[in-house]
Amino acid sequence: MTDALVSVPAPRKTGPTVALALGGGGARGLAHIHVIEVLDELGIRPVLISGASIGAIMGAAMAAGMTGREIREHTLTAIGRPSQIMNRLWSLRPTGLSEMVAGGFRVGQFNLERVLKAFLPDRLPETFEELDIPLKVVAADYYAQCECVLDSGPLLPAVAASAALPAIFRPVVLGGRVMIDGGLWNPVPFDHLAGKADITIGVDVVGQPPAGTAEVPNSIDSLYGATQLTMRSIVTLKLEKGAPDIFLRPDVGRFRVMDFVKAEEVLAASAGIRDELKRALDERFAALR
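RE: above sequence
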């Protein structure tokens, strides 16, 4: 059977509404694909999606009308093979000195908007207004030291701003404001779903370094591990204040934030989240009858 003949169930005509928050965590966020696929299987179309960092990227694809299967296949094709990654990165090389220094030459910082253009599917529209499902993208204002929720206007710059992890990607300037990774301020933005649906789902892919080892982490792993500590603290406080109806934590802790080349391994390790989500939805739907 060809992919063209495969379709997901039509969205439910009646019943409780669902809103979805997809969190940040780099390559660990590939586990979001399982959640999207389960919602497809059940014919559940969220009335609102919020996302931070990798969650904003996955959320944008879903909001654009892509199925979980389409997102999975595109992901494995685009980043699941080292040769494909190198080919796409090579296409981003500067064509001359003027392009290299445009906007300031910064060693070790990539222009994420250009990277996303090379890796994201063509299905994504130009603006938020063209999306099939409303989307809220969370970024962090570097100088104002506050959260910025983006839900209108150009889509790609907003997603790039939300995923602009410091030290790897250069900040994104939007409306005169310097934006960095939204997951650093709001790792799982389920608070933006409050009152918007009958059932709210939050997916936390922050992860944590594997326990049971005395190995001293290198400088990069130490940096990201410290970031995980901060993000975990933020999520804990948010859950105490008001948790979503369903809160999921896929088993992705052993993967590093930039382990995108291990896409198949991330998906295999986190597959257990599928049954967990189905059980939780069954319980919530039963409670609302």
